[in-house]
Every structure is written in C-alpha cells, then in structure tokens.
C-alpha cells in the first residue's frame, strides 16, 4: 500500500521557505518492513564539490569564504578567489609527492584556514584526506586509536598547525618516511616541511588534468567513527555522497540557496556534522564560514558569545549544550541577542535531544527580541550518510522528532529486538569502510540498505505522515536480569525533561541487574545557586548540599511513582561529583555523553550503586516495597 502525505507549517515563526521532507510515500511490505521516501525527487547535483568552488571563485571571487581570528583578535579572511588559487598550488604539491588513496593526507589538528585550504587542494587533486580527532594525538598517552588509524590508512603525509602539541604522537606513531607538514614549529631529529612551501608551489596543467579525472565515485575523504565501543572505522566519503547530500539539504532548506549563507561555527571537522554538513553548505551555496574557536564548555563558551556579538549568522548549528549556554546568556545580554537573532532564519541542533527547558528559553528570547519565533530544526543522520538523512522541518517539531526522509533517500524500517531500526539506501550513503570488507558486509542488508543501529517510532501511529521520533540506539538498550528490555533513549529524555535546569546529563545503568539505576550529572551553576554556594564551590560540595540532595531525592521519588514497570522505574540513583570527561572518551567532541564509556570508566560507582554502599545513594520513597 502506498500513501502520499503532507504536513502543515506553523505560521507563528519567522518566514522561511522549507521543502524536501514535508511529504512522503509509505510502502508497507509483506515481510513487515516499511519503505519511506520523500515525495519530492532529488534535483541535479554536480559531479564534484570542487566544481562549486571553481564556479564561486569566478562568480564572486572577492566574497569571503572563510575567516578566523588571528592572534591580535582581528578576523583573518580568505576570499573565494584566494581559496581556489591556494588550493590549486597545494594540489600541485600533493601531486608532486605521488599521494593517492593508498597514501592519503592525514590531518591531526583542528579547524583552521590552512586545514581548509589543504582539504580543498586534496580534492582538486583527487587525493583523499582524513581529518582526525586531535584528542587521539594530544590527550591519549598510549596512542592506541591513532596507531590503528595510521595502520588503516597508511598515510603519505601528515599535517599539523603547530608541531609542539603533536610531537610525541608523531615521534611514536608515524614512520620516518611519512612527511610532516606544519604551519609552525619543528621536530627534533625529523624534517618538517613548511605549509608555506605547499602553498607557494607553482601550479601546472597537471592540476586541471587530475581534477578532470575526479568523478562521483572518487574518494574525497575518510572520516572515522567515534570508536566508543570498538576501534574507529574509516568511512569512505565519495564526491557523489557529498554533492547529493548538499542537494538534499538545499531542497529541505531552500533558503540556503536564496542568499549566501553565513555560519559562525565551532563544530569539529573530524566529524561529519561540522565538516561535510557545514563546510559543504558554504561551498555548495556560495557562503561564508567564520571559524568559532569557542566550545560549549564553561571555558570555551565566552569565545562563542564574543563571536556571535559580532557576526550575525543566517543559519546556526550547534549541539544542545551550546544552545543552552547561548539561551541563558541572551536573557541578560541584549547586544548578543539583538545581533545573533537579527537575521538567523533557522537554528539547527544535532548530537543529542534538546531539553524542553532550553527549547522554551530559546523561544522566549526570540519572541522578546524579534517578536516572533525562529524555527528550531533537527533530524537524523550519521557519518555513513554524509550526514543529512531525515529532516524535521514540518509543522510537528519537538525534541526527539526526526521528521521524514530527504529527497533521493530511501529509508527502510525493520523490526529489530522490538524496535524499528532505521536503514538507508541512496546516493549519500557510503559504499563502506576502507580496508574493512567484513565490517562493510556486516553493515548492509541483503537489499543494500545500510543498517544504522538507530531506532525510530511513529510520532502518532494514526498519522504517520507527520513523521518519526527518535527511539534510541539499539546498542544502548539493555535487558534487566528479568529479561525486560530497557529503552535508554526515551527514558533518558524523560528524566532530563523532569529535571528542570538542574541536570547536565544522565546515564542509565542496569544491565543484568534487577532494576534501573541512574547517574545524575548535576548542572554546576544552577545547583550552586540552588544550594546558595559560591561560584567557586567544588562539585563534591554541591552534590552534598542539602538543597541539592533534596531536589534530586524528590526527582527520584517522582520518577519511581510515574514509572509503569521495571523498564521505566528509577530504583536508585547517585549524584556524580565530577563531570563527564572528554579526555577519557565520556564526552564526544560535539559535547554529547557517551553512555557506554561513562559506565565502563565508572564501573566501581555502578557496583556501589547496586550494593547500596555508596554513602550518597538516593532511593525512592516506595511504601509498597
């Protein structure tokens, strides 16, 4: 059976043109699976993302394509024409070195103008590049993940902005025949090529000849999965993937093509959201990206706010934690709110669910400063889908909504362990993992759909045309000792929604246990205020404060009372006295909590939670027990 659907757009928001994933066709199949695809066909797209760079340099060469603050605090700007000229020279330098997919370019450092130029040059030359999480080189002590990545890729060139933070990693992991290129610095006993040498190489017709050979199936880059439970996998990203995905994006958000987009963005380029998604938007639509050296942390948010007081984005992307910090700041910082909200047409969040409290704060700020709401958008995607896949841009949008598929993408929902797993097939889906045929084969079903491991549910089974909501990661779910499944995603969202502003995050425990336990990560500033403590009070003191303990005790009581069975009742909890650690993999680069890493690192705390030996254990009031 095939049904065509449509969804309404709320008139209460700042007017923007949306499309692409507002209508869908549903096909119920005899095997019980469901096929869903957009009713809007995918439009034409270029064979290479660099075609847009070349066209843009010719059409608006003086426009800034990217900028970053220099040491003096002023913006260092790179124009479209300069970006193409530098990319051509860098492409020549890479061709001169005989680099290829077998010996690609590896980038160890974070976002930067030189990083951007090197990536463009590599794509012009048809040589894959691989941005790697800087933490693998600068935080790790044993470099286990970095060694695995190097063994997988066998790079011919490694790039860093400054040699100092990466000196140990380079010395211990990279063979002497791997060329090191750096913007600044030197290495003892090892030659370092200046990035300026690449940038000043004289381009020849060999660059155009190499670019002419680049086609839709050419590998543009390798992006690595997070490796939270296993070693990171090298996701092949082809030119077809990047270009088709940007066309999907612009059909869902047509306003991106109606005026050159301006982004202020910190999201890391070793992740698909910051790299493929956001850099791609700039290249595909002739825009400008201002690199934000801030982060959604207490130490980094000040820089983000500084940038947003100066640069007004036309669309803004961030993780929920970043949006929360901005929402709170706008309540007392009118210049920030006025500038940030002056022309932003939509705010897009990803990486985790946005709590109702933060959502309401953003709505209030928009209404106060603009007299209207600005649309909050989200969806579902992954590294293997370039990443854009499902988009929630219809009339029904709230935290956890995924929406409907983007044009050109087929989505299959298959029953797996009592949930509907989301599977993808389309031009934006990876052909597989580099040098990992077994893992590639395991990731696709017999119809060629990529098995995501994400679960979805109908927002309303009676009105499936309004789309899907997130139903957690199948791999995060677990069974209690009774055999009862616990669906972690929805439970976590319910706890956060009930906690007001007093929780940063929550981790669910209970695998093979009799009941569910929770690790509460308190929000330091809000809990200090609740306890009447100074801003400098340590978290251990905050967690032990009577007012804080009373609040979380009442929360546990409520969650127990509202539970309908062992899979939804919170039977025990503890307030954690330190925040999730980025260094230990408990937080991703994007600011979301890695549930498995937290549980593994804090196994002793979980054990204490269940043998009731933790001195600060919170147990629900349950007279019937």
CATH architecture verdict of the domain at 476-610 = 2-Layer Sandwich
Strand numbers in spatial order across the main sheet: 1-2-3-20-21-22-23-19-18-17-16-15
From the alpha-carbon coordinates, what is the Rg to the nearest angstrom? 25 Å
- Main sheet summary: 12 strands, mixed
Strand content: 15-25%
Task: Write a structural description.
The protein is of the alpha/beta class. The chain has a domain of 135 residues: GMP Synthetase, Chain A, domain 3, CATH 3.30.300.30. Helix content is 34%, strand content 23%. It has 22 helices and 28 strands. It has a 12-stranded mixed β-sheet. Strands 7-6-8-9-10 form a 5-stranded parallel β-sheet. Strands 5-4-14-13 form a 4-stranded mixed β-sheet, with helices on both faces. Helix 2 packs across helix 3 and helix 12 crosses helix 14. The N terminus is likely disordered.
